Amino acid sequence: MENDIFDRDDASAEVSNFDDLPENPETPQTGLAVLAERVERLARLYERLAWDNQALSEELAELRAERDALFEKNEQSRARIEAMIVRLRSLEQTS
């Protein structure tokens, strides 16, 4: 199954965007502006990661349900095949 919800390169790019902000601002006002920008970027990144996490959790639940259904179907098929083998053996012995 293709997962187009989460793109690691996109998330990495968002994190690396923090590198373009100055480490040591020249004035307190500049420092506050830089800090505010970092907080805003972190908030956007958090929201996006929370959404991605929710989407991935839902996808995981769907895949687990599908796996369980396929396992049950496999068990039913196995039981039918085993019953056929028993019937064939009994027919073979009576012939």
Shape: rod-shaped
Amino-to-carboxy terminus distance: 50 Å
Beta percentage is under 5%
Report the order of strands and helices. Answer: HH
- Radius of gyration from the alpha-carbon trace, in angstroms: 29 Å
- What structural category do the secondary elements indicate? mainly alpha
Number of discrete helical segments = 2
Distinctive features:
rod-shaped, 80% helix, mainly alpha, 95 residues, 2 helices
Q: How would you describe this protein?
A:
With 95 residues, the protein is an all-alpha fold. It has one domain. The chain has helices at 8-16, 28-94. The longest helix is centred in the middle third of the chain and has 67 residues, at 28-94. It is rod-shaped and about 100 Å long. The protein starts with 7 loop residues before the first helix and ends with a helix.
Write the layout of secondary structure elements.
Layout: H1 8-16, H2 28-94
Describe the structure concisely.
By secondary structure, the protein is mainly alpha-helical. Helix content is 80%, strand content 0%.
